[in-house]
Amino acid sequence: MTSTKAIRVPAQKQYLLYEAVLDFIQERKPGVLVIEGEIAAGKSTLANELSSRVISMDDFYLPADRQPLDVCKEPGSHMDLARFQEEVLRSLHRETLTYQAFDCRKQEYTDKRLLSGECTLIEGNYAMMSCLGDYFDEAIFLEVSPELQKIRLQQRNGWDGYRRFSTRWIPASERYFAAEFVRERCGMRFIIE
């Protein structure tokens, strides 16, 4: 396991996070960087600020009718990891990458096409499942204070959405992080407060 350096970042100075990650990318020069982290920590926002070649793990949720009844019991059981391997990992180093992105709200697939870039960012939880192998060069982990997480989830999903996340998805993510040693496998950790 790697020794993970942690950097604290005030939420109102988010630019410090971008600068630190850009420095990390320039220093390490990863071809593939995974951004994992707690729910509402800003994984998608960070990835989209840093690169035009972003693959979101949210695109690989299983349709609701194919998910197990207790999706939170087994880490990643609600994800279509076989499709991620087939459509993304096998084509990761091609100049143009095309895959089917699943929209959870609409419960439908759409085509996604990404052009080449210096660094491919794969953002979202379950990107470091051991069954996927070590396809990435580097990984970073974003943590968020419980207070800020609550505010962000309520703004993004409303009160009912926040309750659903706090009782279902946050505990599921924490089980995944522990089972797969995600925090420990990341080269750098950022704590957003």
Structure commentary:
- The longest helix is centred in the last third of the chain and has 34 residues, at 146-179.
- The strands form two sheets. Strands 1-8-7-2-6-3 form a six-stranded parallel sheet. Strands 4-5 form a two-stranded antiparallel ribbon.
- With 193 residues, it is α/β, with parallel strands linked by helices.
- It is globular and about 45 Å long.
- The protein has helices at 14-28, 43-50, 81-87, 146-179, 182-185; strands spanning 5-9, 32-37, 54-56, 97-103, 108-114, 120-123, 138-144, 188-192.
- It has a single domain (5-188), classed as 3-Layer(aba) Sandwich (Rossmann fold), CATH 3.40.50.300.
